[in-house]
Amino acid sequence: MKAILKMLANPGFDLERVRSDFAYLELDGPIIYLDNAATTQRPNQVIERMDNFYRFENGNPLRGAHRLGTAATEAMVKSRSKVAQFIGSKSEKEIIFTRNASEALNIVAYAWGLNNLKSGDQILITRMEHHSNFVNWQFVAQKTGAELAFIELTDDYQLDMQDYRNKISERTKIVAFSAASNVLGTIPDAAAIIRIAKEHNALTVVDAAQLAPHVQVNVQKMDCDFLAFSGHKMLGPLGIGVLYGKSEILQAMPPFLYGGEMIEYVEDHTSTFAQLPYKFEAGTQDVGGMVGLAAAIEYLEDIGLEKIAAYETALADYCVAKLEELPYIEIYHPKQGAKGPAIAFNVKNAHPHDVATILDYHGVAIRAGHHCTQPLHRYLGQNSTNRASFAFYNTKKEIDLFIEALEDVKNVMQIDI
Amino acid sequence: MKAILKMLANPGFDLERVRSDFAYLELDGPIIYLDNAATTQRPNQVIERMDNFYRFENGNPLRGAHRLGTAATEAMVKSRSKVAQFIGSKSEKEIIFTRNASEALNIVAYAWGLNNLKSGDQILITRMEHHSNFVNWQFVAQKTGAELAFIELTDDYQLDMQDYRNKISERTKIVAFSAASNVLGTIPDAAAIIRIAKEHNALTVVDAAQLAPHVQVNVQKMDCDFLAFSGHKMLGPLGIGVLYGKSEILQAMPPFLYGGEMIEYVEDHTSTFAQLPYKFEAGTQDVGGMVGLAAAIEYLEDIGLEKIAAYETALADYCVAKLEELPYIEIYHPKQGAKGPAIAFNVKNAHPHDVATILDYHGVAIRAGHHCTQPLHRYLGQNSTNRASFAFYNTKKEIDLFIEALEDVKNVMQIDI
Amino acid sequence: MDLRQIYSQIIMDNSRSNKYRHEMPDATATERGYNPSCGDDIHLSVKIEDDLIVDATFIGTGCAISQASTSLLCGLIKGKTIKQAKHLIETFLGMIKGEITDDEILEEELEDAIAFKNISTMPQRVRCAVLAWRTLDLIIAKQTGTPMTE
Amino acid sequence: MDLRQIYSQIIMDNSRSNKYRHEMPDATATERGYNPSCGDDIHLSVKIEDDLIVDATFIGTGCAISQASTSLLCGLIKGKTIKQAKHLIETFLGMIKGEITDDEILEEELEDAIAFKNISTMPQRVRCAVLAWRTLDLIIAKQTGTPMTE
Ligand SMILES: Cc1ncc(COP(=O)(O)O)c(C=O)c1O
Ligand SMILES: Cc1ncc(COP(=O)(O)O)c(C=O)c1O
Description:
The complex is a heterotetramer, with two copies of chain A and two copies of chain C.
Chain A: H1 2-9, H2 15-20, E1 32-33, H3 44-56, H4 67-86, E2 95-98, H5 101-116, E3 122-126, H6 135-144, E4 147-151, H7 161-167, E5 172-178, H8 190-199, E6 203-207, H9 219-222, E7 226-230, E8 241-245, H10 247-252, E9 263-266, E10 271-273, H11 287-303, H12 305-324, E11 329-332, E12 342-347, H13 352-361, E13 364-365, E14 367-369, H14 374-380, E15 385-389, H15 396-412
Parallel strand pairs in A: 1-13, 3-4, 3-5, 5-6, 6-7
Antiparallel strand pairs in A: 2-8, 7-8, 9-10, 11-12, 12-15, 14-15
Helix pairs in contact in A: 1-12, 3-11, 4-11, 5-6, 12-15, 13-15
Chain C: H1 3-6, H2 9-16, E1 29-34, E2 41-49, E3 52-61, H3 64-77, H4 82-96, H5 103-110, H6 123-144
Antiparallel strand pairs in C: 1-2, 2-3
Helix pairs in contact in C: 2-3, 3-6, 4-6
One pyridoxal-5'-phosphate sits between chains A (100-102, 130, 132-133, 178, 182, 207, 209-210, 230, 372) and B (259-260, 283-284).
């Protein structure tokens, strides 16, 4: 605890300056925003970067025969290299901009899954997947006849690596897993999962929606085949996400969406398609979103991802320690291993939505529900849970106020524990 | 010409005030932006509306158990009703937010086309379709074995209604057409096309990407089955588009993208899906884009779409008249019938890209290329063309400067006509 | 607005009451009501003889608001005619939408269910409060063909 | 920058020259070069005997920049060895990228093709200028296995 408190007092970056970049903190009736796993807030720098694009660099990218078109194209190209560098990709060709992580995972399902899987094959996912890395595979399984199987969890809410080894086989063609759970916080050993998949010649799909905002991702070190994440969960705007794919694999895939920019020659009845990454980006793309995401990455890098991860871990550890002191709280969060700053919990005898409403009344924003993980919640034996999730602009004091507000939940809900 | 000049002098709205809302006009080295069919510029009001959302209303929509989540949900709901009202839809359920028109047209191709067409059926599109309403149907034809056929054009660059009547038959299951050509400007008689399609029990898909910015659309009066458009071509931000579909038809379609928010119950191997419109909106949606689009619509409505259409038509008519005076210019634009403010032309003996570069040097932004209509360009016998396209913030003076700059094209390119 | 106006004693008591919370083997109609976003999930059963709702029970899980609302609904409609029940639905939904505000009318018709009046200030909880009422409305619509209340 | 530095007399003359603009029935290699965004489209043919490029011609359509560049390229490489041609590609691309700026070297090696030096100030036209050079690079890569220039 001492180390945690020290880190919370001295995060190694200027917390007050950081907080002054976030406008929501100026709202009347202060908001303690602990719903960062759903979507983060955006610093002024990100908003201003988008504004500047729309005011002075706005044209249709890739089509421009004039200086605004060129400005927009440059904005797109620079944003793409920023993302490529951020996740350690070999080449900008491997970076496909999507609307969000969900769309990225659908591209893999449609353009790879439907074209490469057949009856007898196995798709292996995990019990803790978000619906966006779950329902897409159900669809592929139903369409192709492939079997959908699940890696289960240990009693400590970690991925059961033994169960994984038992289930993977030569039939397994693809292993799709969340690199950080949006509910439990669990961070499984992605490198090990990918290594084992490779031993069985299975491709790997990493859902990094909850990892990329907190831990430095490196796709080459991970050696994954696909990786997906969303800008809005890491200070970027809504409406922009990323699919990384190894270029050999992307190259071999047919396109997904059809339209402008993704073609090469269009004859009446046949077409050929553009080079990567454009092949997968149909129609006019969201350059406003791209520059916003690039600005968000720059903001994170300016502080430093290691510092961010260390501070966020301290916030989460502190919060867990405080919650554990409350006898009426049940926590769903691993005790061992790596974890992200998301903590699911329930107030005994109180429904999560009532808890969230009462906390909201006290200015504390958390989330209640199944967090798009119904299969995981069935496994937990809970219809729904509460979730507090942190970002580096949160403070120890906010956690203390959150814990205090929980006491009022206990009172209002007349809980007698 | 007198009427045109009168309209250009007195558009019926405060042109100077309007122009002061557009930041790009403050750039050093003024830009005469005549590439509005590619993407428009955005007024400050749209940018500020998005800013305000991101600063003070930002949460994850639909999931919110706290006031920011509620604010984001409200922003989404209000934007959707604004769009529904704008296009005269019966219900918000019929409004699906997409990334752009291209994605909207892909949803129809995938979720309706692949599931309803078979060998022997016919898909009827037109010679002037944008690739986004062309290559998607090629894909469906290839996958299903349905035949892809084309309605050709008249010598006046209009849709050949006789050819349409000749080609449509009981085999025709879907008629997909552009309600305004992005190259020729042609505005075909959508109501007539749809009526004839209905006589043959064919569904209709309207690509309104170039119509919605200029002419008041009413889906109920049109009685189309699907309609698509993009926000960025009508003052809205990039990254947001709309698919309208009749609710009975959308209801009967399977989902397209899978993931969060679009589900109802998720079991291990099967799922049920959310109600319209959510069924077609997987993952966290771009509320920033939605509020921007709603603000854009409000901006257009504040001026009045009829006034906008009348003024833009005058701009285009004036420009055509001026171009016709130049012997070295060839114009691809109908003489008769309704037309939008896009004019394709070529400078004889000069390649469009050289023309565009020289005009850019003079601060005039037009577009050069095939404008995502290779089949149309093959029909025109041109590899590529130049295109000038107008919005209501353009002026007569800008057109005059454009025409002057064309004279320098003639000099630089040493054209002797 | 004070939290205790939402989580009032009436609502807290009714949310935990088991009076109407049980299966009904001889139900004439049962419908499921579900809020996908929050997980409120009820099965509402009624026994209708001629035009009379002779019994109403439910099973389910959900927040205090949804459970209390369902429980109060069962108590209110038991012994009422279908027509009276439909009128109650309209009054309840009218209250939630802020269209019916006269406390005297509301109290007279809805009795303790007037406790939900303040929910209209919490848009994210409205769906919890109306879940049972919409479910009953569906049952009535299926039985009688009456269109559902907006 | 003045427009006439881009659309110089050298470029205008070469863009219209038909000297190298014809089919080559006995070509040893032909490749297509295409800029999808603007429609520049050339077929570059070479006749290679031993290590010597004995002839080079093209057919195609496109802007003045792409056509002049292709024409100049044909004139330059005719009579050169493959190795010399590869060196020319590197010099030309180096000039466009602004990495080689010494006018003396450029003039010496590229002769009239130095006229494209200013194109680096017009990013949207760079692809037009380099199209033929990249196409030739592809031909050489296929013939000799030399990796293509970045
Ligand atoms: C007629 C037409 N249809 C469809 C599109 C595609 O729009 P977007 O690129 O926004 O998807 C465009 C614009 O490029 C267009 O002009
Ligand atoms: C683990 C995980 N995967 C995928 C997603 C989907 O992200 P989005 O909704 O931005 O598509 C989320 C967030 O909702 C998530 O937490």
